[in-house]
Structures are given as structure tokens and as C-alpha cells.
Specification:
- By secondary structure, this protein is an alpha/beta fold.
- It is built from 19 helices and 15 strands.
- It has a five-stranded mixed sheet. Strands 12-11-13-14-15 form a five-stranded mixed sheet, sandwiched between helices.
- β11, α16 and β12 form a beta-alpha-beta unit.
- α6 runs antiparallel to α11 and α7 packs antiparallel against α8.
- The protein starts with 16 loop residues before the first helix and ends with a helix.
- The N terminus is likely disordered.
- This is histidine--tRNA ligase.
- Keywords: Aminoacyl-tRNA synthetase, ATP-binding, Cytoplasm, Ligase, Nucleotide-binding, Protein biosynthesis.
- It holds the Pfam family HGTP_anticodon.
Length: 532
């Protein structure tokens, strides 16, 4: 899927003498221009060096510009595709909740009613629905422009035309494995960009849906009430409650019950608090809580749990999310919210969960800050950051492929075995740049595979592993062969007991043989770097 531009053709051997002279003159001019530019830079550098009042000019890139997102995505097995800048209006309709009003509609041209794309996710789902046989599983990144009919606010980074950078994992996998890797990629990117301290707020749509069910929200109001809850990072609870009750017609008693849940935030310990409430008897909420327990286990392996804030007010307004949702925010990117005001409980309301913020809360809004003078605020608040809000966001969208007009995601993926022969690429080339695939023999050894993957990513080695708790060995070898991955790192109970791993270099079916080479676990990175 990586499309490399063709190499420029070699100059023809029958070029005329005049053409050769022009080419030679052009080369001389380019060299002269380059020499003049270098000379100017050295002159400027010399002037600055002689001026004791000015810092020396350093010929290097500035901080924060060294990140190459494409290489980072490739390190996680990503490949890229491109989609049209406009889509059929019916493809985009009904996917964005209240934000659907921000879609740019185009006039009828040739019998098709189209709209400019609002994001890169729905077009990707349309691509999967149309190409399900060829791409039953895919890790895809895409950097392109999107369009929103919004009120521009340049200081807040809100524009009508802007770039989005997406990374999506499509396929049928064991719960929360791809979700945890996506969060790891978010943390890698924001750390490399040097945006400063950041927090990734996470929640689960199934937990939110369970809250709405146990509190008595009518089914036809769930999405509109969810959209109101999502405004709690910008508005005080009193304003959100007013919108629920006055604008959207929700029973005030129901709104108060919702408020006692959505004020909660913390870390993994919050799951225990939720299980001690009525949510434990709700099917949707219980499923979401189980997913989040698993997620925190995997986040611990990747070493990023400290960056997470389990925030029950996070709802995400887009209608297509079905599981994990997240938003990354820069600390201090908005003025601190007012302290929460305790609400009186209705006599008919059941006992609510504790609304006290856990001690492990890392969000900038965890506790009210002392009042400051206008002068202090002017000195401390970066005006360009006020109201910027989230700088990265996403979530799980299991049903979106079905929504865009073909069968559901899982129905598509069940055709993998039947269609896999059609996906043979032969000599076309590799779809991904993955250098190492980590696989297990016998027991699943999921945590060990994840630990090795994290170690390789940190060392700049492009690596993947199967998103299955107990993957089958033939399926793992099938991935290595299909994607033409150069090295397979194999672990099993024997290797773990010995403190080794086994590495097998793939040289094609005809040349690859044997069980591979045993390498001490601590020498794996150095061994691979010598050979990749």
C-alpha cells in the first residue's frame, strides 16, 4: 500500500550536443547557487559569532521538528492509503451527531450529491466496506486535509480547512489489544512533539450507555444527552444540567443522577468504585468495566498508565464510537474550571457513588486553583493556548463499516479464510515496513510479546505482534510470510526459562529452514540492529 514515486528516467544516450551543454550549464548554475547560499550562511554565522550580545547561529533544526510521523506509524506496522476529498453525502450523513451541521455540502454535479469530508475515519470505513476481501485486516495511517463549516478561531486552532493525522487498526482481534497500542502511539507522538505535559482522558461508551440506562434516560435521548455531557470540560455542571433539562427535556431527577456519575475521574481504582454501584447489574456497563480492566493491564505493560485519566465526563460527540474513547489534552490548555458544586439528592434517588476525586488524578482540572489577580493571569496564561481543548482524540467504532452501507465489520472479517487466496501479492511488494514479528509457541505469552514489542519500538525497530491472547502458530507464520517480514522473534516456555529468544530470518520459502538462532534476551536489540 506504500506508493513510492517512480525513479526519474536516465538521460537518453542519443541526446544532442546542445542538450548536453544545457545540462552541464544547469549543473554549474546549481552548484554556484548552492555555493552562494552556503557562503551567505557562513557570513551570517560569522557576524553573530563576533557580536557578543547575540547568541551564536546554530545550523540545525529547531526542537520539536525531528519527529517523522510516517516512520513512527511504520514502526507499528502501518501503511498508508488516500481517499477522495469529497464523498457521497449519504455516506457522511448521520455519523457525527450534532456536528453534522458542520459538513460542507456541494451542489449536485452530474446526478450525485456530494460533501467535503469532515474527517478521515468515515472515508476509511467506506474503503474497507468496498475492499473487504482484499483488506480484511489493516493498520492504516493517513495525513490529509478535512473541512468543517465552523466559526474560525485562529488562536484556538479551529479552522475550516485543516490537516488531520489518523492511525486506524481494522480487523477482528481480542479485546483491548489494538486499543492499547493506539494509546501507546498517541503517547509516543505527543512526547516526540515536545508539547509539554499532557493527559489522555479515557472512557468507554458502554459504561456511559449503562449510566444512562440505570438513571432512566429515554432511548431516543441517549445521544443528545451524551453530547451535553461531553461539554463538561468547557462548561460548569449547572450549565450542562440546564441544557439537559430545559433544552432537551430531560427529567431533572434523572439529570441529577447522571451528574453524580459523570463527575467521577481517576485511574484504575475508579473501576472498583463503579462496581460498587448499580452499574454492576447493568449488562452494558459491566462489559465496559471489564474492557477497561483489561485495558489498564495492557497500559501497564506499555508503561503509559500514568498518562491516563479515567474521566467519566468524556463522551465524544461522534455517533459512530462503540467502545473505548479518548482525548489528549495539554496541561493548562484552558482556564481552570470552577470548583464543583454539590447537588442535593432527590428523596427518590438511590445512593450515588462517591464523587470525590481520587488522589491519583493527574488532570489539570483535578482540583480548583487559588484565585489570582488579572496581572498574574495575564503573565501565566498563554493566550494562544486558551480554549484549544483536545489535541488528539479517537476511539473504537465497531459498526461503522456496516453503517456506510455494506455488512458489519465482523461479517466482513469472517470472509478472510474464504478470500485469503485473492490477497496474494506475489511480486508486487510489501504492504508494510515491519521488520520484526514477535510470536509465541505453546502458551500465548501475550504480556511477554507486548514487552518485547515495546522494547523494539523504543529502539526504533519496526515491530508487530498478533492481537490475540493465544494466537495459533500457523496463523502467526502466515502473517510473517504474507507480509514478507524479515525477522521472526519466537518465544516459548523453554526460551523464557533459559533467558533467551529465538530469531529466525526469513529468506523466502526456498531458503528459510531450521529453527532459527538462540539469542540472549538482553542482546536482542543489538543483534537485530546489526542485521536490519
Amino acid at each position: 500500500m506504500n506508493y513510492e514515486p517512480p525513479s526519474p528516467p536516465s538521460p537518453p544516450t542519443y541526446a544532442s550536443s546542445r542538450h548536453r551543454k544545457q545540462t552541464k550549464q544547469l549543473s554549474v548554475n546549481n552548484k554556484q547557487n548552492s555555493s552562494r547560499l552556503i557562503s551567505k550562511l557562513h557570513t551570517i554565522q560569522s557576524i553573530w559569532q563576533n557580536d557578543s550580545k547575540k547568541a551564536r547561529l546554530t545550523l540545525k533544526t529547531p526542537k520539536g521538528t525531528a519527529i517523522d510521523p510516517v516512520e513512527m506509524f511504520k514502526a507499528h506496522g502501518g501503511c498508508t492509503i488516500d481517499t477522495p476529498v469529497f464523498e457521497l453525502r449519504e455516506i457522511l450523513a448521520g455519523k457525527y451527531g450534532e456536528d453534522s451541521k458542520l459538513i460542507y455540502d456541494l451542489q449536485d454535479q452530474g446526478g450525485e450529491i456530494c460533501s467535503l469530508r469532515y474527517d478521515l475515519t468515515v472515508p476509511f470505513a467506506r474503503f474497507l466496506a468496498m475492499n473487504s476481501a482484499q483488506y480484511p485486516t489493516m493498520k492504516r495511517y493517513h495525513i490529509a486535509k478535512v473541512y468543517r463549516r465552523d466559526a474560525p478561531a485562529m488562536t484556538k486552532g479551529r479552522m475550516r480547512e485543516f490537516y488531520q493525522c489518523d492511525f486506524d487498526i481494522a480487523g477482528s482481534f481480542d479485546p483491548m489489544l489494538p486499543d492499547s497500542e493506539v494509546l501507546a502511539i498517541v503517547c509516543e507522538a505527543l512526547t516526540a512533539l515536545e508539547v509539554g505535559d499532557f493527559t489522555v482522558k479515557i472512557n468507554h461508551r458502554k459504561i456511559l450507555d449503562g449510566i444512562f440506562e440505570v438513571c432512566g434516560v429515554p432511548a431516543d435521548k441517549v445521544r443528545t444527552i451524551s453530547s451535553a455531557v461531553d461539554k463538561l470540560d468547557k462548561l460548569p455542571w449547572s450549565e450542562v444540567r440546564r441544557e439537559m433539562t430545559e433544552d432537551k427535556g430531560l427529567d431533572p431527577v434523572v439529570a441529577d443522577q447522571i451528574g453524580e456519575f459523570v463527575k467521577l475521574k481517576g485511574g484504575p481504582e475508579l473501576l472498583g468504585q463503579l462496581e460498587a454501584t448499580r452499574l454492576s447489574s447493568n449488562k452494558s456497563a459491566s462489559a465496559g468495566i471489564a474492557d477497561m480492566k483489561l485495558l489498564f493491564t495492557y497500559l501497564d505493560v506499555f508503561g503509559i498508565t500514568s498518562k491516563m485519566s479515567f474521566d467519566m465526563s468524556l463522551a465524544r460527540g461522534l455517533d459512530y464510537y462503540t467502545g473505548l474513547i479518548y482525548e489528549a489534552v495539554v496541561e493548562g490548555s484552558a482556564p481552570p474550571p470552577p470548583p464543583p458544586t454539590p447537588l442535593p439528592l432527590s428523596a427518590t434517588s438511590p445512593p450515588p457513588p462517591s464523587a470525590r476525586l481520587p488522589a491519583s488524578e493527574t488532570s489539570a482540572s483535578a482540583s480548583p486553583r487559588p484565585a489570582k489577580s488579572k496581572k498574574d493571569k495575564a503573565e501565566e496564561i498563554d493566550e494562544s493556548q486558551i480554549g484549544v481543548g483536545s489535541i488528539a482524540a479517537g476511539g473504537r467504532y465497531d459498526d461503522l463499516v456496516g453503517i456506510v452501507g455494506v455488512e458489519r465489520v465482523f461479517s466482513i472479517l469472517l470472509q478472510k479464510e474464504k478470500e485469503k487466496e485473492k490477497d496474494k501479492r506475489g511480486g508486487i511488494g510489501r504492504r508494510t515496513a515491519t521488520e520484526v514479528f514477535i510470536m509465541s509457541v505453546g502458551d500465548g505469552l501475550l504480556i511477554e510479546r507486548m514487552q518485547i514489542a515495546k522494547e523494539l519500538w523504543d529502539a526504533g525497530i519496526k515491530a508487530e505482534f498478533a492481537y490475540k491472547v493465544k494466537p495459533k502458530l500457523p496463523k502467526q507464520w502466515e502473517t510473517v510470510d504474507k507480509e514478507q517480514i524479515p525477522f521472526a522473534v519466537i518465544i516459548g516456555p523453554d526460551e523464557l526459562a533459559e533467558g533467551n529468544v529465538r530469531v529466525k530470518e526469513q529468506k523466502g520459502k526456498e531458503l528459510t529452514s531450521g529453527d532459527g538462532e538462540k539469542i540472549p534476551r538482553g542482546e536482542l536489540v543489538a543483534w537485530l540492529k546489526e542485521r536490519i
